[in-house]
């Protein structure tokens, strides 16, 4: 019989609709503005007495609490509004010490029975939730220079162990140069070094006195160093952002040497910028002996005083070897950082200290900075960055015994400095300096305004389409409008299930989907009209309309889907958001136009002896 579905098709449609309804429901429960309190690292969760102090301080500040939830590793304070959230964050942050991370957040209010089904609302992007956006640029030249400095230090140690005398070590671009007393020493050094450092191209050169060996990194080695630098920086920045306690952060590569960092819900730009952009690292060096050659030493100043110390240029270990770092206080109440090293770092530290007991060892704090100046280029102002590095001694202590994998750093100025240093060491050091190219802040009120305007645009688009379909196709227009509502529910459910992020361009994709969803129905209904005009019966016209419009609908939607997939694969940020909603909308609209409306038509008019069709 024409226009009848088998039972399994009706059951399949009902199953899809039920799943779509369940997984779209969490979006009806908006997230609550919240303040999240979690231990900085390896510490204990907020105690009951501390929580009572927090609640009392919020009450004194006339900030009402919606609820308080204690988790395994955090405490969540739910509030009524975004303005209360920011005020509460300031109160709590000023009350607690640096052992706790206080971060603004959005807490789900989805009922427990939906959470048990793994149903959660769509993730909102930065433009809808508010927060900060940073565009960072990695200094690739500095990455190469830092690697050359490490290699030069290892080369000097190798030469000293083999008792080969050398003089100066110079680094220029991607080339390391060493001077030797004569050509025989140079050739012996070249043979020795080339075995351990195959990435260099070696060349002999004449020096003012003696012989010179020039070692230049190959192009392949430079590319590998730069690729490692940006990947390591990505990992480090993700670790730092996780330490901030931000929900749904975005840290991704953009182009050959840039990184995008988006922190939804964060409004304290200064604190986020200080942690994300910090380039601090540590070096552990021995103090130079009086008879150490001048070219092997470096004079550095203490950070807290004008006095200086003569240190060895060779580095025992850097902050890269730190596996864990926590802040605490010594027996005199001064801040300190407790350090745990990885296996390699512990071995190197033990080897250096066991043979130098009684000698001083310095902890050097290194920070890469820039002086930005504006110059005119081709009649337009352009910012030029002059990078420089600050090195200062944190502490200089006598080695009492051989050190292993655990020890402590003292001599820090404040608990805040100790907390930030431990955070940076835990998250890992940057493989190359990074600079802020762009900084943008979106307030929570603006984000809510974007949501309201986006919802309004969807409502207006939906009402216009509904009105057009009712006026044009009457009863069949009503069927198309019901399918349109189903399509919207399925798009929202799919985005929620996939964990896709909804952005303003994504809302634009949903609005476009509404038009495309009825476009297929327009093709079908117009085809049915044509078949009726040729003299076919009502049932034959309905059957022919759906069958003959099928190919056109599939072709049109597949080509649009192909474009959406290309946009997703090569686009970034907003373009991806648009492509995701557009792709999902195409798939759901084909399902609703070809199956849902056909099922509704079959149930209402299928198989009935109708003489006239209201279309």
UniProtKB/TrEMBL annotation:
<feature type="domain" description="Protein export membrane protein SecD/SecF C-terminal">
    <location>
        <begin position="437"/>
        <end position="601"/>
    </location>
</feature>
<dbReference type="InterPro" id="IPR022646">
    <property type="entry name" value="SecD/SecF_CS"/>
</dbReference>
<keyword id="KW-0653">Protein transport</keyword>
<feature type="transmembrane region" description="Helical">
    <location>
        <begin position="549"/>
        <end position="571"/>
    </location>
</feature>
<dbReference type="InterPro" id="IPR048634">
    <property type="entry name" value="SecD_SecF_C"/>
</dbReference>
<comment type="function">
    <text>Part of the Sec protein translocase complex. Interacts with the SecYEG preprotein conducting channel. SecDF uses the proton motive force (PMF) to complete protein translocation after the ATP-dependent function of SecA.</text>
</comment>
<keyword id="KW-0812">Transmembrane</keyword>
<dbReference type="Pfam" id="PF13721">
    <property type="entry name" value="SecD-TM1"/>
</dbReference>
<dbReference type="Pfam" id="PF21760">
    <property type="entry name" value="SecD_1st"/>
</dbReference>
<dbReference type="Pfam" id="PF07549">
    <property type="entry name" value="Sec_GG"/>
</dbReference>
<dbReference type="InterPro" id="IPR022813">
    <property type="entry name" value="SecD/SecF_arch_bac"/>
</dbReference>
<dbReference type="GO" id="GO:0065002">
    <property type="term" value="P:intracellular protein transmembrane transport"/>
</dbReference>
<feature type="transmembrane region" description="Helical">
    <location>
        <begin position="478"/>
        <end position="500"/>
    </location>
</feature>
<feature type="domain" description="SecDF P1 head subdomain">
    <location>
        <begin position="298"/>
        <end position="432"/>
    </location>
</feature>
<keyword id="KW-0813">Transport</keyword>
<feature type="transmembrane region" description="Helical">
    <location>
        <begin position="506"/>
        <end position="528"/>
    </location>
</feature>
<keyword id="KW-1133">Transmembrane helix</keyword>
<dbReference type="InterPro" id="IPR055344">
    <property type="entry name" value="SecD_SecF_C_bact"/>
</dbReference>
<keyword id="KW-0811">Translocation</keyword>
<dbReference type="InterPro" id="IPR054384">
    <property type="entry name" value="SecDF_P1_head"/>
</dbReference>
<dbReference type="Pfam" id="PF02355">
    <property type="entry name" value="SecD_SecF_C"/>
</dbReference>
<dbReference type="InterPro" id="IPR005791">
    <property type="entry name" value="SecD"/>
</dbReference>
<dbReference type="InterPro" id="IPR048631">
    <property type="entry name" value="SecD_1st"/>
</dbReference>
<dbReference type="GO" id="GO:0015450">
    <property type="term" value="F:protein-transporting ATPase activity"/>
</dbReference>
<dbReference type="GO" id="GO:0006605">
    <property type="term" value="P:protein targeting"/>
</dbReference>
<keyword id="KW-1003">Cell membrane</keyword>
<dbReference type="GO" id="GO:0005886">
    <property type="term" value="C:plasma membrane"/>
</dbReference>
<feature type="domain" description="Protein translocase subunit SecDF P1">
    <location>
        <begin position="230"/>
        <end position="287"/>
    </location>
</feature>
<comment type="subunit">
    <text>Forms a complex with SecF. Part of the essential Sec protein translocation apparatus which comprises SecA, SecYEG and auxiliary proteins SecDF-YajC and YidC.</text>
</comment>
<protein>
    <recommendedName>
        <fullName>Protein translocase subunit SecD</fullName>
    </recommendedName>
</protein>
<feature type="transmembrane region" description="Helical">
    <location>
        <begin position="577"/>
        <end position="601"/>
    </location>
</feature>
<dbReference type="Pfam" id="PF22599">
    <property type="entry name" value="SecDF_P1_head"/>
</dbReference>
<feature type="transmembrane region" description="Helical">
    <location>
        <begin position="454"/>
        <end position="471"/>
    </location>
</feature>
<feature type="domain" description="SecD export protein N-terminal TM">
    <location>
        <begin position="2"/>
        <end position="103"/>
    </location>
</feature>
<dbReference type="GO" id="GO:0043952">
    <property type="term" value="P:protein transport by the Sec complex"/>
</dbReference>
<keyword id="KW-0472">Membrane</keyword>
<dbReference type="InterPro" id="IPR027398">
    <property type="entry name" value="SecD-TM"/>
</dbReference>
<comment type="similarity">
    <text>Belongs to the SecD/SecF family. SecD subfamily.</text>
</comment>
<dbReference type="InterPro" id="IPR001036">
    <property type="entry name" value="Acrflvin-R"/>
</dbReference>
């Amino acid at each position: 019989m024409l226009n009848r579905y088998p039972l399994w098709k009706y059951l399949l449609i009902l199953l899809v609709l039920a799943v779509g309804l369940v997984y779209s429901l969490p979006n009806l429960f908006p997230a609550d503005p919240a303040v999240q309190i979690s231990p900085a690292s390896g510490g204990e969760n907020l105690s009951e007495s501390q929580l009572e102090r927090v609640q009392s301080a919020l009450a004194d500040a006339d900030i009402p609490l919606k609820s308080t939830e204690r988790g395994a590793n955090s405490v969540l304070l739910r509030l009524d509004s975004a303005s209360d959230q920011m005020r509460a964050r300031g109160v709590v942050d000023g009350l607690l010490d640096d052992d706790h991370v206080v971060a603004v957040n959005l807490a789900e209010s989805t009922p427990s029975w939906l959470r048990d089904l793994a149903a959660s609302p769509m993730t909102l992007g930065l433009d809808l939730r508010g927060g900060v956006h940073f565009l960072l640029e990695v200094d690739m030249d500095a990455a190469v220079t830092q690697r050359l400095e490490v290699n030069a230090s290892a080369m000097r140690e190798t030469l000293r162990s083999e008792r080969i005398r050398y003089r100066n070590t110079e680094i220029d671009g991607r080339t390391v140069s060493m001077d030797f007393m004569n050509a025989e020493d140079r050739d012996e050094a070249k043979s020795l070094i080339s075995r351990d450092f195959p990435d260099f191209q070696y060349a002999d050169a004449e020096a003012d006195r003696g012989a010179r060996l020039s070692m230049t990194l190959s192009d392949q080695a430079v590319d590998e160093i730069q690729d490692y630098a940006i990947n390591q920086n990505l990992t480090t920045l993700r670790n730092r952002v996780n330490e901030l306690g931000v929900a749904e952060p975005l840290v991704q590569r953009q182009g050959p040497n840039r990184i995008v960092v988006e922190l939804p819900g964060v409004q304290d730009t200064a604190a986020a910028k200080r942690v994300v952009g910090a380039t601090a690292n540590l070096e552990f060096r021995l103090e130079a002996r009086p008879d150490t050659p001048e070219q092997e030493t470096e004079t550095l100043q203490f950070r807290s005083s004008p006095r200086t110390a003569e240190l060895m240029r060779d580095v025992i270990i850097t902050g890269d070897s730190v596996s864990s770092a926590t802040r605490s206080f010594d027996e005199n109440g001064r801040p300190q950082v407790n350090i745990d090293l990885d296996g390699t770092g512990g071995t190197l530290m033990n080897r250096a200290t066991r043979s130098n007991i009684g000698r001083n060892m310095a902890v050097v704090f290194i920070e890469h900075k820039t002086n930005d100046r504006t110059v005119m280029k081709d009649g337009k102002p352009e910012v030029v960055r002059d990078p420089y590095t600050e090195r200062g001694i944190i502490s200089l202590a006598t080695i009492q015994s051989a050190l292993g994998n655990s020890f402590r750093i003292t001599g820090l100025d404040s608990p805040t400095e100790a907390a930030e240093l431990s955070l940076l060491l835990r998250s890992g050091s940057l493989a190359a300096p990074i600079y802020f190219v762009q900084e943008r802040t979106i307030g929570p009120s603006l984000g809510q305004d974007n949501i309201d305007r986006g919802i309004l645009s969807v409502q207006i688009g939906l009402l216009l389409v509904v009105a057009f379909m009712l006026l044009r196709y009457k009863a069949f227009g009503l069927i198309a409008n019901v399918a349109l509502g189903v399509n919207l529910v399925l798009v929202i459910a799919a985005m929620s299930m996939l964990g896709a992020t909804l952005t303003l361009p994504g809302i634009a994709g949903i609005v476009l989907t509404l038009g495309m969803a009825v476009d297929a129905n327009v093709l079908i209904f117009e085809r049915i009209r044509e078949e009726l005009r040729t003299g076919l019966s009502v049932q034959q016209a309905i059957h022919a309309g759906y069958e003959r419009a099928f190919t056109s609908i599939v072709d049109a939607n597949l080509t649009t889907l192909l474009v959406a997939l290309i946009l997703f694969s090569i686009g970034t940020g907003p373009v991806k958001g648009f492509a995701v909603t557009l792709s999902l909308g195409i798939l759901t609209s084909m399902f609703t136009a070809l199956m849902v409306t056909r099922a509704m038509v079959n149930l209402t008019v299928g198989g009935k002896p109708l003489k006239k069709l209201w279309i």
